[in-house]
Amino acid sequence: MSRIINIGAAQMGPIAPDESRVSAVNRMIELLKQAKDRGVNLVVFPELALTTFFPRYYEEDISKMDMHYERGEMPTPECKPLFDKAKEFGIGFYLGYAELTEDGHRFNTAILVDDTGKIVGKYRKVHLPGHSEYDGKRPWQHLEKRYFEPGDLGFPVWRTMGGIMGMAICNDRRWPETYRVMSLKGAEVIMLGYNTPDVNTSAPEPNHLRMFHNHIVMQASAYQNSCFVIGTAKAGIEDGCMLIGGSCIVQPSGEMVALASSLGDELITYACDLDLAKMGKETVFNYAKHRRIEHYGIITSQTGVIEPPLDEAAE
Ligand code: CDT
Fold first, then answer.
1. How far is the CA of 313 from the centre of ligand 1 (A)?
2. What are the protein's GO molecular function terms (predicted)?
3. 104 found inside a domain
4. What's the CATH code of the domain at 200?
């Protein structure tokens, strides 16, 4: 028997710094309407889907950035129309946004809302890229380490909408640990949103590698963890900074089964048979049978590299 869930990646074009929440939410509702017409059960929106990617701007006083964060419980009044429409359509969704907690903590967050409108899960980005102080050598900043704390919720998964679902956010997708922790909890679908500039200002590498790396990490991870990966971009030129698109749906074989073709608001969909994830987990990636944890200890006890000592005799 198959377990099919129709999933959509709802890529969004740029959000201007002065674009209102109402406008961003209306764009998401438009994508939800397309999802409804195409029989979609679950939609994945991008990272920081309600605002421009504000970590590109430096502000000495972090509180001056408060307008980019959502405070209090979701749905906020501005987001309520999105929640209402999704519930009316019976569509679940992943939503990325900047969270400012009651006690003043700032996180890059995503929530998972099921097809009845209930918030079933929250994830806070663990792998924050970039830097925390102004860097005059960059054409634009990437100040996630200034504006967010590392997530404090780990990598939970949730049994919902007929499958086992997990979430990640942008830079998390480059780290194998992200997927492995969730797949050790049985994750069949891993959803993630991203905002990835087409230039890596911290490393001299050709621009085409940005898309290559974007896809290779999601495809390899889908295969190695036998799960679907849904990657959704915020794309296009946002206040002068080009963000790559390439939103995609990857099945557990590692094959890409849907790919966005534009840099704007665009919905791509695929009928995901979750039993395909089960198959890999019971064979090549049957962890209980094949993992050799006695050799993996340094993965959790060590961060930086410790090389073997130099062979002085050979020098
Ligand atoms: N948003 C985000 O995590 N972006 C990073 C860009 C890193 S370049 C400093 C990414 O991994 O795509």
1. 43
2. hydrolase activity, acting on carbon-nitrogen (but not peptide) bonds, in linear amides
3. yes
4. 3.60.110.10
